Input
Amino acid sequence: MADLTSTFCGITSPNPFWLASAPPTDKEYNVRRAFEAGWGGVVWKTLGEEGPPVVNVNGPRYGAIHGADRRLLGLNNIELITDRPLEVNLEEMTRVKKDFPDRALIASVMVPCDAESWKSIIPRIAETGCDGFELNFGCPHGMAERGMGAAVGQVPEYIEMVTRWCKEATGLPVIVKLTPNITNIILPAEAALRGGADAVSLINTINSITSVNLDSFAPEPMIDGKGTHGGYCGPAVKPIALNMVAEIARNPATANLPISGIGGVTTWRDAAEFLALGASNVQVCTAAMTYGFKIVEEMISGLSQYMDEKGFTSVAEISGRAVPNVTDWQYLNLNHVTKAVINQDDCINCGRCYAACEDTSHQAISMSPDRVFTVMDDECVACNLCVNVCPVEGCITMKTLDKGEVDERTGKPVGDYANWTTHPNNVAAISAE
Ligand SMILES: Cc1cc2nc3c(=O)[nH]c(=O)nc-3n(C[C@H](O)[C@H](O)[C@H](O)COP(=O)(O)O)c2cc1C
Ligand code: SF4
Ligand code: SF4
Output
């Protein structure tokens, strides 16, 4: 079995699977059982300042998007940071860290945006024996209205300033958790780096309204007839998170900044994808809330089996492996030609591919009177819409034409690599160099 030991900005854990700051990490009872189940680390539910704890709503705090099979695809929440007293959390963290010294225990923090608040709480939390801090600049609801969370994370100058305060207050690693509710993730990531961050973690939740009650005419979850936007997470947000992780990993200024990948991780494969795009470890919330702590067993066995099959001896060998293959559109090979192929043995003759291609693509699938569906190579532009709408996995595949082979649609032989920067239709004729 492959060694899954992971080192993230100097913090070692037996595997790269951490629980993200959220209800699964809200208390000792949860975290103990999470560690017993095998999680490599946890980011404790965000701690706030001393004083009366925050107050949560007393009605539903979640909205959801389900697939046709009722599988949870996206979760929306209007929960705030921990609503338990700071002292209680600190005592529990101290006990847990003492009993599980080999696991990573990170303290997530969010206090008002002034130097005194941050500089006084950080050393106090450090006394728990925690391994590092995660600054919550991401919470998009409730706390943002009080000038915290995403209200800080959306202003790069504030990120830099608060990160610097924290670095001045501790020698432990400081991870900056980024909000996806911005237009360009590079700006907050670079600001975190300037402030001295040891790493970034992303994504926090996405501003969202999951549904509207059409009898009460209010967004769900509804509290006494009113709703508000919440934070969206779960499998549905993974593509957004992967892109943001890759953006940071391939940006020269942030390329060496360790990344903790978060957003929709449900299986070992999701985790491996985050690693490949530049993350050094992953954090999980919705999947644990949906299936319980034991899902980490599948993650551990799946990743280690994959590593054994590929001959990888460390998690670090996967990290960033796909980054060189993420490019800008203009560098894609315009001479790479493929064609859809329908496997007639697998086809159930549903006609979905025909409807999709006929009505919204390139009229490249023919339907015979007895419902045999065939791709016409002289019309197929290889968009792969049919592959994606076909209900039978693997029934339609894309075949790559060899160099020199004639593309029946254009009548031209397949040529060498050439991209948009040198294409004759490109009036801008940008140099490929
Ligand atoms: C109910 C709920 C509460 C959350 N609370 C926090 C929090 O206190 N601090 C924080 O940094 N992130 C919080 N998050 C965000 C998660 O840590 C994580 O960034 C997000 O859910 C994306 O991961 P996922 O798709 O695995 O759920 C919360 C998420 C949920 C669903
Ligand atoms: S790949 Fe696109 S163009 Fe080709 S058959 Fe499928 S849907 Fe039609
Ligand atoms: S969508 Fe798939 S199963 Fe349905 S007709 Fe097309 S190839 Fe056959």
